[in-house]
Amino acid sequence: MATELTVVTFPRLFAELGALSQAKGSRALKSIALIAEAQAKRNASTGAHKYGTPTPARPGTGPARISGNLVRSITHSDVTLTGFGMMEVKVGTGVGFMPTYGKSRTPANKYGYYLETGLRNGETYPFLKPAVLFACGFPADGIFRAAFGTAWKTSF
Length: 156
Hints:
Blueprint lengths: L8 H35 L25 H5 E3 L3 E2 L5 E2 L2 E3 L14 H10 L10 H8 L2 H11 L8
Antiparallel strand pairs: 1-4, 2-3
C-alpha cells in the first residue's frame, strides 16, 4: 500500500527518518569511540618501567607504562547533539587521575596532553591521535555500513 505524500505525511515521515538516523548514528559513534579508547589504552602501554628509570618507548611511539595511571584515565564521553543536528563523542584522558609516585603532581590529563603534543625536550609520545585515526579508518567504515547499509561511504 503506497503512502501519498501530503502536507501532513511528508513532515511526519521525515521526522521519523531523522529520529531513526540519529539513533543509528549515535550507536555507531559510540562503537567507534570504544574502539578508539581501547586502541589508545594499548598505545599508552609501549613497554613498562619503574619511575626514575629510562623509558623503553621511542619518540613518535606511545609512552611506556609507569604506574598505569594514564591508561586508567583514558575514557570517552556520551554521544551528544551539537548545533545543526550534528553529533559528537570525545575520547581522551579523564580528569582527577593523579600519579602515586614521585614529587610531580601532574594530573594524567595534563601529562597525556604533554605526551601527545611534546615534552620540554620536544619529543612526542602520541597515543590518542593514532588511536582515533585507526578507529576512523576500516572499523568506522564497517560500523557505518552495518548501521546505514552497504552504500555508505565514509570520508574521514
